[in-house]
Amino acid sequence: MTGGRGVRVFSPAHLARQVRAGDLVVLLVLAVVLYAGVRLAVGAPAWIRGPEISLAPSALPWYTFLSLLRMTAAYVLSLGFSLAYGYKAARSRRAERFLLPVLDILQSVPILSFLPVAVLALTAFLPERMGVELAAVFLIFTSQAWNMTFSWYQSLVTLPTELREASSIFRFQPWLRFRTVELPFAAIPLIWNSMMSWAGGWFFLMAAEMFTVGTRDFRLPGLGSYLHEAGEQGNLTALAFGLGALVAVIVVMDQLVWRPLLAWADRFKLEMVESAEPPRSWFYDLLRTSRARDILWQKVLAPLDERLIRGPVRGPGSPAPPGRTRPLVWALGVVGGAGLLVGGIFVVRFLAALSGDKWLAILAGAGATSLRVAVALGISLLWTVPVGVAIGLNPRAAGWLQPVVQIAASVPATALFPAIVLGLAHLPGGLNLAAVLLMLAGSQWYILFNVIAGARAIPQDLKYTTSLLGMARGRRWRVLILPALFPYLVTGLITAGGGAWNASIVAEYATFAGQTLTTPGLGSLISQATADGDYPLLLAATLTMIVLVLSTNRLVWRRLYRLAEERYKWE
Amino acid sequence: MPDHLLELRHVSQVYRAGGQQFPALQDVNLTLDDGEFAVLVGPSGCGKSTLLRIATGLQVPTSGQVLYRGQPLHGVNPRATIVFQTFALFPWLTVLRNVEVALEARGVPPEERRRRAEELIDRVGLDGFEGAYPRELSGGMRQKVGFARAMAVEPELLCLDEPFSALDVLSARALRGELLELWTGGKIPTRAILMVTHNIEEAVFMGDRIVVMDKNPGRVVAERRVPVPQPRAMKDPRLSAVVDEVYGILAGTTQPEPVELGSAPGEPGRLRALPDAAVGSLAGLLEHLAATPGGRHDLYRLAEDLGVDSDHILRTVEAAELLGFATVAEGDVALTPLGETFAEAGILARKEIFATRIRRIPLFRWLLELLEAAEGKRLRDEVVVRALALEFPAPVAERQLRVVIDWGRYAELFAYGEDTGVLFLEPTEAPTSR
């Protein structure tokens, strides 16, 4: 954030208006895309046979490998998308004005609500297995790409002017600029965001791999379907094995990929002072001294790098004549606008076919799911605030609690769902409880981590002051701790809310031991509509969820966030 | 007529913001010949750094032409380079790699660029520091890396953007000497140097020609040759004479009051930007002047005596002029009787004098009227910034508001709530009743 002490920066009113108009356009685009998907879905087979899932532990490595493969494919896609989209948004004013609001909306849309439409549409015209595979990768991609893109874009536009000017005056070629200036500057936030994206990806992968509705079994061989099958058969040993494999993969990824990357990227810190506690990684130290790495560098990478540098020198910076591109852009805009308008009309006509009863059901479902989300967030707050503050204010507790919490949080909530259903299915209203539990599992960690970070950021001198003043416990919370936590809580709640809404898609509808369990809600409506092939309902319910989440974000969270930014920030 | 090495013809730079146009540079003509060391001096905001970027092709002017050896310049000039004020080193590269990367961009093969980089590092005296990271070096050493990197591309035109202003006094002095030695000894293939600085003494000590710029709008107001061959002695009276003269040009001559004060926002006529000077500095200056026999002082000596740079002195003197505490003529500043009174007054009396003086400034008059008329006599700062943004570019408008708040608070004309961003008249005070 810019704007030092004293005079605060303010955003001009027209920017806010512009974003709001942009919101509507992007929403319309989403509606039209979903509509197209739903129209395609009409051709989807009514009965889809799922794969045979073996519960033998010996099958686990193969399933794990398949899951990892999907994750990797989606991640590579996300990274490529992020780099291209970020470059475009950072380099062109006009593109920026359009690309940023789009990104902002895509980021807050409940991605999982796209799952039914995506798998139905893709299985309609592709071989079933391939359609579901693609839908899974696409879904993971949509969960991973946005925050990485934002981080890359942010880095590109905040690159210090002096470094940008230096690379221009020394006439760096695109590749040299990328690897010497832009990538190093962006590396640390990009790695952190990749870690977040990867963690979020697990959530969607599990959901996609275990997705089944009615007579359509969309499952994919992988860890998710293994867990699902284990829950279905009530095989506790297999459940334990599956979860164990998942945790093992997450831990191994952390040790062999993310830690080394962070240790490597420490050199890219912009600070002109040595950091006190640089991130360490045993695997990175091992790699650093390995001969294979030297050989790889000397024989392959260095020559390749030379080739890339000698590549096209960017021509003199004379801008392209604007006359030629303008009409093309305009023509594209007109065609796109007309297409959108026509699509919009189709969407409205399609939705008009829906009976009043169904709209009422959607309304009721929206209410029920909102309530569940609120309850899940409430419960999260109740336990995470005291625990988070205790951890954050007490470095000794943080020492041993932090890793435990991190491992617990690393398990994607969707992976727990089969186990939760197995445990609660026989209780009255069991799925209702299971749904809230799953939402809790998918949201509480975001709040906890933010509370810990907030408690840690409280300046020591203020802590001393409150003790010196002999403030009572309650007063201390009111005067110091809660205001200090506020911005962190808002950030945590925004992410947690998104997680809870996503969870609702899989949480409110379960097939268990051959029978279907549902609990009223928007998520179960979406799944039910998928099972029944009720496409207008599917579209209406999906759109309702998107609009609901977006408007909550805009009307509640964003305002709170702005308040937090202005009022409750350490300077 | 032989071509100049560099020629700027009728260069103007205009920034647009919110439908307004702000000229940053207006019709600048400048030439630089083979073998010349020219220095641009002027107050901050006069566009001298912008001019440097235009001269190298980093920035394209709104209008006007840049000719290099008689040819119009398109894009970044491959024969020019810049040494930056803030060094612009890549913090994640070692000293060696920082120099090498400039050669890499030119397509020099690996072995040769390593050899040349090591040689250059050796030449600037950083032998042994090849493997060090910039954060391990002092400011002076960092700038040496900046020079080595610039030399690596063997520029014909070397541009220096306040290269010594981020260094401590001793490092700056040493580095200036070393640069002059390389330049006058013909040890580098550089044909001409264009330097930007706001340190007038430094400009006169180093340059063959001083180009004096002024702001609002940024333009060239004078050029002076320095008729002293290198190597020069710091205390050479011929240099002091030029310094004195340049100060005189920059400080101008105190104008009759209506001209000095300008007009209020929205009124016809020129709105005068308040000099960005702290009240504390102003008081310090007036006290120093009052302690001088005769209350008269050479501007350039003032900078030396007070140990601050010329930019700071000029801003503070401008404030004193605006408030009627001092007058400036021919590079000399003299205290007015009012200024003397202020210097001798106690805390409360000073505030009162200050308040009556700033009330005369149209900008404050306008603001107070606005506050009186406002509901609850409260005004959000952004309203003021928005009004000022009609007259100044946005960043300048924000800085102006900061000065207004600083001065207004000191004078107790109004109060300002930092966290609410609201300016308000305090109920106990009734400024209009007086």
Describe it.
The complex is a heterodimer of chains A (571) and B (434). Chain A has helices at residues 13-41, 60-91, 93-108, 115-125, 128-158, 161-169, 174-209, 223-233, 236-265, 282-288, 291-309, 322-352, 356-393, 395-410, 413-424, 430-456, 460-468, 473-507, 522-532, 535-567, and strands at residues 212-213, 216-217, 509-512, 515-518. With 571 residues, chain A is an all-alpha fold. In chain A, a hairpin with a 2-residue loop joins strand 1 and strand 2. In chain A, the strands form 2 sheets. In chain A, strands 1-2 form a two-stranded antiparallel ribbon. Chain A has 2 domains: 13-279, MetI-like fold; 354-571, MetI-like (MetI-like fold). Chain A has 20 helices and 4 strands. Chain B has 3 domains: 6-249, P-loop containing nucleotide triphosphate hydrolases (Rossmann fold); 275-360, Orthogonal Bundle (Arc Repressor Mutant, subunit A), CATH 1.10.10.10; 361-434. Chain B has 16 helices and 16 strands. Chain B has helices at residues 48-56, 95-105, 110-123, 139-152, 169-184, 200-206, 237-251, 257-261, 279-291, 299-306, 310-322, 337-344, 347-359, 362-373, 381-388, 394-410, and strands at 6-17, 20-32, 37-41, 63-68, 71-72, 80-83, 157-161, 192-196, 209-214, 219-225, 296-298, 326-329, 332-335, 378-380, 415-417, 422-424. In chain B, strands 6-7-8-3-9-10 form a 6-stranded mixed beta sheet, sandwiched between helices. The A-B interface holds A 5-10, 160, 162-163, 165-166, 168-173, 176, 180-181, 184, 267-274, 302, 306, 309-310, 315-318, 566-567 and B 53, 56-58, 60, 74-76, 78, 80-82, 84, 86-88, 90-93, 101-102, 104-107, 110, 134-135, 149, 153, 381-382, 385, 398, 401-402, 405, 418-419, 421.
